[in-house]
Amino acid sequence: MQRKSISRISMIATPVMIVCGLLASGAPARAQSQDDGPCSNRILLGDYGFAVEGLILPAPGVTIPVRGVHMTHFDGNGKLTQVDSIILNGGPISDWTTVTGTYHVNANCTGTILLLPSTGGL
Fold it and tell me: Is the pTM of this model over 0.90?
């Protein structure tokens, strides 16, 4: 159960950080159609580091602190590789975990990401 929760946190945190990175890159904030605009998969090229901090809420009144670091490499063509390390309730839950996946950046600078943890579970 805890590993599934951690994978879900990773799946949520990474797209949020990508969007923040796109916004910080100076991409225009106005809405555009899918066919025109400054963004594409090529805008994400290289290595990006992320930190995640939050709480897992497994039951009412129960909170488990979680922290993690992620290093993601975007190839500019829609594929990514990532390593991450998660600390759950003050202790590491595993060594560095390898993640692969795909991403798509739309012309209006929104996008999607699919992460496939090496553990096989989501």
Answer: no
